[in-house]
Design a protein that fits this description.
single chain; mainly alpha; 7 helices; about 65% helix; about 0% strand; elongated
Length: about 120
């Protein structure tokens, strides 16, 4: 499951909406929504995120959160380290090899380090 998929499911359940009902309103298939919730689909398109925001009538911070979660929810990430340092390539490869074995505490620590860095 992706962060966006998890939040999408939470919103749907909070409002008592089935996948079938939501899919009909958004003009997509229930299978697409299921795949989006379970992380079997890539990042939703910008127009789809906007449809979902409109469907749930979320505003301000909640809408920004959904947009951010969508950006952070690609289940098939590719990291191109060509042109970067040897250490960057090492980090990317080790992270790829170990990501499935990291516990939540370690993942939270890594996210805190990344989030504390200045944006480039």
């Amino acid at each position: 499951m992706t962060p966006f998929g998890k939040r999408l499911r939470e919103l749907r359940r909070e409002r008592g909406v089935t996948q079938k009902e939501m899919a009909a309103a958004l003009a997509v298939s229930p299978a697409y929504l299921s795949a989006l919730e379970h992380g079997r689909r890539g990042t939703p398109s910008w127009p789809m995120v906007q449809k979902i925001i409109g469907y749930f009538n979320v505003i301000w911070d909640d809408a920004e959160q959904l947009e951010r979660l969508a950006r952070d929810s690609d289940p098939r990430v590719v990291v191109d380290t060509s042109g970067l340092s040897v250490r960057a390539t090492m980090v990317a490869n080790r992270l790829a090899a170990q990501i499935a074995t990291l516990d939540d505490r370690t993942l939270d620590a890594l996210l805190a380090i990344i989030d504390s860095r200045p944006k480039s």
